[in-house]
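Query form — protein Pentatricopeptide repeat-containing protein, mitochondrial

QUESTION: What is the three-dimensional structure of this chain?
INPUT:
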Amino acid sequence: MKRGPVILSAYWHKVFSCYFQPSSSRVHISFVCFSSYSSFGSPGLRSFPDYSPKKPSIRDADFVHRISTIIKQRRCEPFRRILKPFESKFRPDHLIWVLMDIKNDYTLVVNLFDWSRVRRDPSLEACCILIQISVAAKDLNMAQKLFDDFWTKTIIDRNTSVSQFLEKLSKDIDGLKILLKVFREFSEVGIQWNTMSYNIMIHSLCQSGNVREAHNLLFQMELRGCIPDAVSCSTIINGYCTQGDLQSVLKVVKNMQQKGLRPNAFTFNSVILLLCKTCKLVDAEKVLREMISQGIFPDNVVYTTLIDGFSKSGNVASAFRMYDEMRSRNIIPDSITYTALICGLSQNGKVAEADQLFREMLNTGLKADEFTYTTLIDGYCKVGEIKVAFSLHNEMIQLGLIPNVVTYTALVDGLCKQGEVDTANELLHEMCVKGLVLNIYTCNALLNGLCKSGNIVQAVKLMKDMEVAGILPDAFTYTTLMDAYCKSGEMAMAHQLLQDMLQRGIKPTVVTFNVLMNGFCMSGMLEDGHKLLNWMLEKDIMPNATTYNSLIKQHCIRNDMRAATEIYQGMCHQGVVPDENTYNVLIRGHCRARNMKEAWFLHKEMVEKGCNLTAEAYNALIKGFMKRKKYMEARELFEEMREKELSADKEIYCMFAEMNYEEGNIDLALVLCDEAVEKCLIDNSKGGRT
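ANSWER: The structure tokens for Pentatricopeptide repeat-containing protein, mitochondrial are given below.
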């Protein structure tokens, strides 16, 4: 690249216009305008852009009109002669107004500018106007010369003006790459940009998604002797946070600390938001504590971010802990804060508490929006309280709030789970009449309802209608249909759906495979179940405990405890952690096979891991020990079972009532008889009526 005066390259082909306020007066900078062609001599240059300088007074307008008229009428005469009578009254503003008046006559423009420049340096605004006129007239040599003067004489000595210029210019996304080339080119010819200018460029690159390039510019900034500040690093951190790149965020934070730069509130907020989005909530709270320890106090946004994160993860207790801390610091929660808490409570089935908080929010004067109502409606639908959900739906309409597709999806899903598929279908028609477009979630809710009601034919038709409407089935759609086929024993159809999924590039989830595995096992197709498990392992699709449990359960039912144990061992070998269901199924199987030693060992192991026995597993263990005449172990388990308020079966109550009666414990024997009547006879009677 040529050194010395700045050379305009072929890549200058965009319009840049910006305003900024230097200390004295408003200056308008109009950058050179080029078309999308790559060379100066290319045709198709843009015309002079729309631009209106400040309006002249009546006296000035008359003065400008006289000058414009006389130079047009006497254009062949030297300007120093025809304009001599006007020299004493001619001001920089007059030059701008006359240039705008004669801009379509390029010869007059150049002559007037030359005449004016002999007397005084033209203003920056006048230079920019002449650059634009030169480009429009295709006099690129003139534009080049003026542009060089523009940078070397005027802009370079004004760091603040340059920064403001870059800030305005960088908002043109299409011109950002060009601007970056300019920025670097001018650095190479010795122009020293200040920190503010670098920060503007870094911010613009991050805003456009070019965070890596912004980070590289930060390194170049240091190499050129310009010291980054906290804003420089925080902007990069926020950029990486927006992209979800936690590792890069941590590197920049570490580098920032090494340089002795203290993170500001913006830095902490960005990191906390990213950690919450990636479900690293413990780390997010640690950052909050670090923030407070450095004397930077969090605001409503930070606490609401954490509350929302904890709520979505199901940790409602921690969400309310953050809420209480927020209130203790006199930080007022807003409607977003309340909605996050309502969402957390609703998702955990605590709709009564969610409704109470909702009313508290309204009592404080805050207004609920569509999202708040939809969150509460979804909560009521999930617990089966459809009437309350529709009552809230009507309430929001009365307030002028418009239910959206998410609201209707929640209602459709709630109706389908109650078996009211026809009503759900009517609601879908109402949605369409209101102009709302169905999405995959709405259709899946209805499809799930059809499958649950055993109407597989209609469910298949719905899936085909979805595709015609441009709503492509997803993994949930296929899994729901597969589950329906499996439960009806149509395993060939279920397996075919899996093949269709794979052929269409739809990635099955582990739930998909579990549905198919359970179907094979329930249909007695154990060989196919084992083939499916082996295929999953070969394809590096990691099964979970539910996958293995289906196979273990079926082998236990067949009293093949050797095979069940082998599957259990293979499960542990793959690093899959057994769950409560795994232990309970195995314990019941071993008890049935009279392998009490293995059953007791598994019981101890599950207790150590914090798992709980089901009533069925307790019953199996107790009966097993009683048959082996291990009365102490049986009694211990029976008392443990009673403490947990689990119901033993009638046979066990009778055995222990008789045992206590024979031992002389008449009162306890009578208590056990009462419990047997209450929990076995009365409960069974109720169950029979329902």
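ADDITIONAL NOTE: Residues 1-191 form one domain.
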